[in-house]
Design goal:
326 residues, alpha/beta, Rossmann fold, seven-stranded parallel beta sheet, two-stranded parallel sheet, 11 helices, 13 strands, 40% helix, 17% strand, globular, binds nicotinamide-adenine-dinucleotide
Length: 326
């Protein structure tokens, strides 16, 4: 099959490209390399089944042509990461909304099956964990820029479901919870690579807030497996589905595990949110997915633990982890 991956030189998109090439598909990636890296897909060039186009999804003429040529589309291009969102709110909103609008328009025109990734951020300050797909969404005020990401992604979801409702566009919407693994960079505020990198260098690990906030981290290999199954299954179309891991850990515990698994002498430093991100930043205390729907639809069950993730990330940064419980 011919598959288009927008944002395919990014973290999740490049793992998706690896997986789909291994399955024998022909892959085209369009990526402007704003947060993605050529080195993420360099190994795929010359495989005969891979084409990289360095351009933006805002180039609609090109995008239309690429969608028309493809059988399936994974729309992974997006502004991503809390730091980027706080620093470039206009670009965040424009990239997310206009990019998805264009992809959906062309997929609808040529009747192409498409996966739209959304995010656990859409649950906002919701407190009834685990988060279920039909829960109410509760974001903050519009002068708190952090919520721009969640709201832009929510609008993407509405638009995707509207296309499904009006013309049965074959679209699946997947809410990714924190996804981590090799190739993810800490440059844009992603917590696991930031912590592991600091631990490897024996530098202080900076925890934002008091560290009692918790998250669940899914290994990118599990998530990619889920994405492929969700797009391939007809009964998942027109639905919104959570994907990730439901093993919950506080951010302090995460820092402690990164230190232990890399045999590091790092200490933990607590930094107030206002210092890390400036004024106007709000965080959520817990973010746990209900994976029941994904389990029922595609038998989804993550197989990698948080320790596997930390060890894989440490290895990716050039140092084998000190010990493992995996
Ligand atoms: N990684 C996570 O924890 C996570 C969680 C929730 C949702 N998601 C979603 O998954 C998708 C992939 O995220 P990721 O973690 O791989 O991030 P990433 O930043 O590594 O990937 C995004 C890619 O999109 C590219 N891109 C950005 N703007 C573009 C444009 N205008 N034209 C072409 N390419 C453009 C970037 O260069 C990058 O390669 C995004 O939609 C993101 O919102 C990721």
């Amino acid at each position: 099959m011919k598959i288009l991956i927008t944002g395919g030189a990014g973290f999740v998109g490049s793992h998706l490209a690896d997986r789909l090439i291994a399955d024998g598909h022909e892959i085209t990636v369009i990526d402007d390399l704003s947060t993605g890296k050529y080195s993420n897909v360099e190994h795929l060039e010359g495989t005969g089944n891979f084409r990289l186009i360095i351009d933006t999804v805002r180039n609609e003429q090109l995008l239309e042509e690429l969608v028309r040529e493809a059988d399936h589309v994974y729309h992974m291009a997006s502004a991503v990461g809390v730091r980027l969102i706080m620093e470039q709110p206009v670009k965040t909103i424009e990239t997310i909304f206009h990019g998805t609008d264009a992809i959906l328009k062309f997929c609808s025109r040529y009747r192409k099956r498409v996966l739209i990734p959304s995010t656990s951020e859409v649950y906002g300050k919701g407190a009834s964990v685990p988060f279920k797909e039909d829960d109410d969404l509760l974001t903050g005020a519009t002068d708190k820029h952090r919520w721009a990401y969640a709201c832009a992604k929510t609008l993407d979801e509405f638009l995707a479901l509207a296309h499904w409702k009006e013309t049965r566009l074959p679209v699946a919407v997947v809410r990714l919870f924190n996804t981590v693994g090799p190739r993810q960079t800490g440059q844009y505020g992603m917590v696991v690579p930031r912590f592991v990198q600091a631990a490897i260098k024996n530098e202080p690990i900076e925890v934002h807030g008091d560290g009692t906030q918790s998250r669940c981290f899914g290994h990118v290999a599990d998530v990619v497996e889920g994405l492929c199954k969700l797009l391939d299954a007809n009964h998942c179309l027109g639905q919104v589905i959570n994907l990730g891991n439901d093993e919950e850990v506080t951010i302090t515990e995460l820092a402690e595990r990164a230190i232990a698994l890399t045999g590091s002498s790092s200490t933990i430093r607590y930094i107030p949110y206002s210092e890390a991100y400036g004024e106007g930043f709000e965080d959520m205390r817990r973010r746990v997915p209900s994976l029941e729907k994904a389990r029922n639809l595609i038998g989804y069950k993550p197989t990698r633990t948080l320790d596997d993730i930390i060890n894989d990330v440490a290895r990716d940064f050039g140092k084998a982890a000190g010990s493992t419980t995996a």
